[in-house]
Amino acid sequence: MSIKKIIKAPLLFIYRFGLKTFGGLGLQKIWPFGVIRDWLSDVVRKYDKPRSVVFRGQTIFLDPNDNLELSVWGERHAASREIGLMESILKLGDTAVDVGANIGLMTLFMAKATGSTGRVFAFEPEPENFNLLQKNIAANAYKNVTVVPVAVLDHPGTLKLFLSDFNPGDHRIYDPKERTKDWGKNGAVYDKLIEKRTAIDVPVIALDEYFSNYKKPVAFIKMDVQGAEGGVLKGMTGILKKYPHVKILTEFWPAGQKMFGVDAGEFLTMLEDFGFSFYEVEDYSTKNSASKNFLLQKYTVLNNKSGNLLVTRESIR
Fold it and tell me: In this predicted model, what pLDDT tens digit does every residue of 138-192 receive, in sequence order?
């Protein structure tokens, strides 16, 4: 065993133990705990980092910092919960949509679940992420994925994508520094939320427009766009009306949604008006839906919590 692997083993243990023991307590928003957490995360991700990993049978080439932490957690990665849920929903031949595909983690498992007779559409506007997305699809020999290098919102055109220089999964279609300048000092503006960002121009499209001539039903949509999910939702109302069985897996992050400009209450109300119910992915095994009021009390701008929701019109048994 190499010296690097010997050194990395205790670092991984400390980091994993710390997150399992203190994760969810909000300590990362308090100095110096947040600084320590960020430093240790940076060390364990970058030290002796592999170029790629095999995760649940898929070969995945990592971004330079491994911000998904796939090399840190391996098969115990938290994404396994969302992937397992998605695999239980998708069937061979289905059409699935990945909005905010990043390097393709969820895209790959969509492609596997829908099979050669299905179709996956993966939207990712940032060029380096897009290149890794294509590389990961090719590495796993999937032929049923269409990759689209655009952002998704409720209108066509061009917009500014504000880039994070430390987390390629945190690029945003709004400037967090500008959007939080009147917030004052609170938990939601911790760490690098207010970093100064470089912006690039990227094309944007609405899902209703993109799928206007698509003939097959859309079965599943995953959205993870750093708070801009409300904008994506406004641009796919036609899909929601046309396909009663479509299911949505979405990040729910009220602080990010407030920064974008469609707040959490409006987002959930729009979905309710279309007849959807909400299930927290972390609590999905109970088969109990979560009310809008419950979610708005649990996830707030002040506590900066986020979670993943399954949104469906069908009762879960």
Answer: 999 999 999 999 999 999 999 999 999 878 999 999 998 888 877 765 544 444 5
- Domains annotated on the chain, with CATH: 76-312 (3.40.50.150)
Tens of pLDDT, residue by residue over 116-138, are: 999 999 999 999 999 999 999 99
In this prediction the pTM is: 0.89
Distance separating alpha carbons of residues 133 and 60, to the nearest angstrom? 9
